[in-house]
Amino acid sequence: MSNAPESTASAPLDRPATAAASMSAREMMAELWRFMRPYKKVLLAAGVALVFTAGITLSIGQGIRLLVDRGFMAGSSAALGNAVLVLMALALLMAVGTYARHYLVSWLGERVVADLRKAVFDHIVTLHPSYFEINRSGEIMSRLTTDTTLLQHIIGTSFSMALRSALMFVGALALLLFTNLKLSLTVLVGVPLVLLPIVLYGRRVRRLSKASQDSIADVGSYAGEIIQHIKTVQSYTRENHEKQAFGREVETAFQVAKRRIRQRSLLIATVILLMFGAVSGLLWVGGNDMIAGRMSAGDLAAFVFYAMLMGSAVATISEVYGELQRATGATERLVDLLNVEADIPESTGEDQSVKTLHDAKAQVAFEAVDFSYPSRPDQCAIRGLSLLVAEGRSLALVGPSGAGKSTLLELLQRFYDPQDGRITLDGVDIREMDTGTLRKQMAVVPQQPALFTADVWYNIRYGKPGASDEEVIAAARAAHAHEFIEQLPDGYNSHLGEQGTRLSGGQKQRLAIARAILKDPKILLLDEATSALDAESEYHVQQALQKLMKGRTTIIIAHRLATILHADSIAVLDQGQLVAQGKHAELIEISPLYKRLAELQFQDSERQKPLVE
Ligand SMILES: Nc1ncnc2c1ncn2[C@@H]1O[C@H](COP(=O)(O)OP(=O)(O)OP(=O)(O)O)[C@@H](O)[C@H]1O
Fold first, then answer.
1. This prediction's pTM
2. How far is the CA of 363 from the centre of ligand 1 (A)?
3. How close is the Cα of 263 to the center of ligand 1, in Å?
4. Lowest mean pLDDT among 106-120, 226-240, 276-290
């Protein structure tokens, strides 16, 4: 993108909004619930398995009591055998229950995250292009991958652990009270002591978690940009600089993570210390009761078992609590992304205007259009511009760099809406048309052809997926691309590499022209379409384009004389304004700017004789 520096600089713009609205755990659950709702049955089954296994774990305490009192203490081998059998049966039930719980809960985590990823991606592809100018793509990718992975862990593991621990806590507490009231009261005094640090530290961990996630996203987007521009990095021998800069990003992420893990480790250590301190105290009090004969050995064993269960439940909750805090950050970012409203409405997909599509004559008019890019609101890219391109006619846009030529094509495709004035197609404001219907009538050959990591078939067919092989080949021939495609190692099946890196600039351009030819649009938008061609291919492609332009409304951003001479009309732009319009000969007379540009063109064309008729 031409505005890379802006996009990088304005990336943090999105941050404050995200950071300000910190989501509570309950809000997070409400958001996630939307995605879990379709799987209520699985959730229910997982809940049943969860309660079942928690119940079994709790009854193991009773099994231990029987084992100690009836087996060990009573010295009866038969009773011991029975008690062991009971324990084994419980273990078997527990294994079955755990299998079901683990499978169902993990399934749910994976499923919900798969749906969430799809929802986020589906939303992203409908967003207006300016969104991606203020938000770095690396950061958006990190939301799709890192944040969703975190959520998957939360739903698939942590959440069920928390729930199980909560159940265990309540169950163990009830059984403790049932086993020995006095001791239970001792435990109850101890529990708040354990809970206190969790609450105190929880907030700090949460803040640090969010910072940690953010810095990881920064690392991802930094690497993404360098990989994308690897040749520039290497040709300017900036590898060492980039290594150091990346190293700094990674170290920052590590420092933030270190603070987070220090807090969490401290939290876990404190909880463990308090828990074991409490258990030792229990053993002291309970042991004395047992020695004094006020309590059976089995009761004490069961009591310690429940107290340990309770303690570990609290410890688990404390650990999971930290993770849930991290998950709120991740959920918040995903929800933010899902809630971004597209400035330009998405195509409804219903082609109510199919009729319009076929009947369209494709007369394009810009009426007093004022426009500045959302990322640069103070700078007008287009100022009070009015232009008419009659049906089937061609208009060449000329003007110095930055005059606003490409911007006009972007506005016509409705990637942005003008702040003032309107753009019409056959008299209808394009804002009143379905964006899909509007764009279906156009094909663009951009300055930098966009190719996808796939083969030639796929790339040419991109605008008309249903086209037959013959149609694709015909389009490639018309764009003078067939010959070079045939010479590729696998012909039309050749893979072009990421962004078509395995092709030359001129070859990419011819593929883009073939794609436009195949789409067979009513309106053709050519942005310097032949700039990357050598003189001979340009001549051929010009011929192909002339044929293609016949009967189609065409707007060409032209730097080449051949194009300018062929156009029905030429519009001269300067600093977003229309300064003159007419035929070549008239403009030479009336527009000094055009005259100057044309002189430069003529000088250029001297070197490319065959191009000028
Ligand atoms: N995405 C963008 N965000 C902000 N400003 C932009 C963006 N794209 C272009 N501009 C600015 O808008 C103005 C018009 O740019 P535009 O690309 O339309 O010029 P152009 O006439 O096509 O130039 P060139 O011949 O160099 O391609 C320039 O000042 C440019 O810096």
1. 0.73
2. 25
3. 49
4. 276-290
Same domain, 213 and 301: yes
Question: How far does residue 558's CA lie from ligand 1's centre (Å)?
Answer: 15
Asked if 209 and 147 count as a contact pair (C-beta separation under 8 A), the reply is: no
Let me know whether 322 and 419 are in one domain: no
- How far does the centroid of ligand 1 lie from the alpha carbon of residue 385, in Å? 15
Cβ of 130 less than 6 Å from ligand 1: no
Nearest CA to ligand 1 atom 12: 381
Provide the number of structural domains found in the chain.
Answer: 2
- For residue 506, tell me if it sits in a domain: no
331 lines ligand 1 (CB under 6 A): no
Whether 381 and 237 share a structural domain? no
Whose structure tokens read 């089954």? 45
With beta carbons less than 8 A apart as the criterion, state whether 191 and 310 touch: yes
The answer for residues whose C-beta is within 8 angstroms of residue 233's C-beta and 6 or more apart is 226, 239, 242
Establish if 323 belongs to a structural domain: yes
Range of the domain at 59: 25-339
Is the beta carbon of 449 within 6 A of some atom in ligand 1? no
What's the rounded Cα separation, in Å, for the pair 564 and 571?
A: 10
- Backbone φ and ψ of 389, nearest 5°: -120, 110
DSSP annotation of 556 reads E
Nearest CA to ligand 1 atom 29: 402
Residues 296 and 407 in one domain: no
Cα separations in angstroms, 507 against 123, 484, 490, 501, 519:
33, 8, 16, 11, 19
Here the CATH number for the domain that contains residue 391 is 3.40.50.300
Quick: pLDDT tens for 198-254. Answer: 667 766 776 777 677 777 777 777 888 888 888 888 888 888 998 998 898 889 888
Q: Do 391 and 422 fall within a single domain?
A: yes
400 lines ligand 1 (CB under 6 A): no
Q: Ligand 1 pocket check: which of 130, 397, 407, 527 to mutate, most ligand atoms within 8 Å of Cβ?
A: 407
The protein residue with its alpha carbon nearest to ligand 1, atom 30, reads 402
CATH number at residue 115: 1.20.1560.10
Q: Both 317 and 436 in a single domain?
A: no
Please write the tens of the pLDDT for every residue from 128-141. 888 888 777 777 88
